Amino acid sequence: MTQTRSDTRTFETADTEKIPAHVWRTAGVVVFGAIMGMLDTSLVNIGLHTIGADLGASLATIQWVASGYLLALGVSLTVCGWLARRVGVTRLWLGALIAFTVTSTACAFAPDAGWLIGLRILQGLAAGLMIPAGQTILGQAAGPQRMGRVMGVVGIAVVGAPAIGPTIGGLMLAHWSWEWLFLINIPFGLVGLALGLRYLPRGGGTATQPLDVLGLVLAGGGVSAVVYGLSEIGVTGSVTSLSVSLPVLLGLAGLAGLAGFLVRALRSTLPLLEVRLFGNRAFSAATTAGFFAGGAMFGVMVLLPLYFQELHGTGLVRTGVNLLGFGLGGVIMLPLGGKLTDRFGGGSVAVLGNLAVAATVLPLAFLSVDANGFLVQSLLFAAGLATAVGAMPLVSAAYAAVRREQLPDATALVNIMQRVGGAVGVALVAVILSRATASGWTPVSGYQLAFAGLAALSVAASAASTVLRSRQRQS
Q1: Distance (Å, rounded) from C-alpha 372 to C-alpha 364?
Q2: How far from each other are the two terminal CA atoms of the chain, in whole angstroms?
Q3: Would you place residue 126 in the very low, low, confident or very high pLDDT band (cuts 50, 70, 90)?
Q4: How many Cα atoms are found within 13 Å in the side-chain-facing hemisphere of 61?
Q5: What CA–CA distance (Å, rounded) separates 149 from 233?
Q6: Beta-carbon-side half-sphere exposure of residue 278 (alpha carbons within 13 Å)
Q7: Crossing angle of helices 89-108/185-199, nearest 10°?
Q8: What is the DSSP letter of 363?
Q9: In 3D, which of 217, 212, 223, 225 has the Cα closest to residue 267?
Q10: Are residues 124 and 63 in contact, defined by beta-carbon separation less than 8 angstroms?
Q11: Among the four residues 4, 6, 9, 106, which has the most C-beta atoms within 10 Å?
């Protein structure tokens, strides 16, 4: 009991500690990379049909513009920690930012679909390094006691950028050519590079072990295969015919690769990724809860545009406007959520936050197709508020649970778990909608069941967060 009171006093005094100006400057710089990575995905996915028509490519071919990016991102996530130790995390972030900006520019001038796909793979490799490297820089600058408030700044990009992406993309495609979906990254990249060179802390790499090529093949290939397999299940909406389903076979092969990497990493004294971090109970609880929370968050972000476009027949721009309430709720709540995380601990905040996500998403499972628009928007705004205190506190808690030198591996592992969880959430949505159509249900019934499924993922995230809360109190 005394230990619990002591921990509570620690959390209660954490949010009163003033955050130095240099930490906020670092956070502001890192946000440029986060916005580029999150906004780019939503913009390009919206423009796939337009890009394919202009380049004379089939839908099956042009889908690889998105799929190649995801596969490459999965590979580079697994090697990010090794590179950060090798060259220094700031150098890695600056290099990845430059590479992302250059490949974005090149994508705009791609002469055909083949070139565009190849360039998107390079862009995905850069994104997979830039996002966790930025979080590592921020985590090392903030320290455990300030992690929640500072990570909340990056969370604005994570929640806000995908929410406004459909609106921005729709307006751009309505007035400009698809090339501007890539060219928009240039000003972000140039400003981020200038600020990074000026304000980010310098530090070189240290001598480290040679690159474990076999480990990279097993881990990078495994993550990519699992994410891609789940994404393809999301496209086809089916998990039947296991013997002939390529997505399912890819997913199983990816799991086998990850299992092989896990065995190899546990036997190595210097593994490519330090998976022994999962032996830290607070870290493992936070990443497990983040897996479910990521599934719910990414699933909602995919389901809501379909809900308005397919069920209500709204256009792309109008759909984006309808999603602004969700993004606005997240942007408003994230700073407060960060402060609550530093005060009470990520576990306590995430327990209530993910229950709130379930409580705001579940009512959508009972609304009819002609439900009052104000009621729908109110629920979406409330869901945005809840998401801000459901997902981001778990990321902050995971990073606060490890030592400074462990952050490069921790950020990579957290991002991998979130990506896989997000792919699970998207696949869940697609399978439910597909099965509902095949079973002859009314169109609204499939969406109602999908919202209920995502609410269940949020409940699972809340349950896992109770373990995190317990570990934090016992720490």
Answers
A1: 11
A2: 12
A3: very high
A4: 14
A5: 37
A6: 13
A7: 160
A8: G
A9: 212
A10: no
A11: 106
Distances (CA, A) of 239 to 245, 254, 321, 427, 439: 8, 16, 33, 9, 15
Q: What is the pLDDT of residues 343-381, one digit of tens each?
A: 888 999 999 999 999 999 999 999 888 888 889 999 999
Beta carbons within 10 angstroms of residue 349's beta carbon: 29
CA angle 154, 191, 174 (to 5 degrees): 85
Q: At what angle do helices 346-361 and 316-344 cross, to 10 degrees?
A: 150
Q: Which range among 77-91, 135-149, 357-371, 394-408 shows the weakest confidence by mean pLDDT?
A: 135-149
- In percent, the amount of the chain with pLDDT more than 70 equals 92
132 vs 233 pLDDT, higher one: 132
Return the axis-axis angle of helices 407-438 and 213-236, rounded to nearest 10°. Answer: 30
- What pLDDT, on the 0 to 100 scale, is given for residue 214? 92
Check if the beta carbon of residue 100 is closer than 8 Å to that of residue 130.
yes
pLDDT digits (tens, 9 = 90+) for 243-252: 457 777 888 8
Residue with tokens 């990497």, as numbered in its chain: 261
* Contact yes or no for 389/340 (Cβ under 8 A): yes
Residue 442 has what pLDDT?
Answer: 78
Q: Where are the alpha helices (DSSP H) in 362-442?
A: 373-388, 392-400, 407-438
Q: What is the largest CA-CA distance in the chain?
A: 69
Using an 8 Å Cβ cutoff, are 383 and 297 in contact?
Answer: no
Q: What angle is formed at CA 443 by the lines to CA 438 and CA 446, rounded to 5 degrees?
A: 70
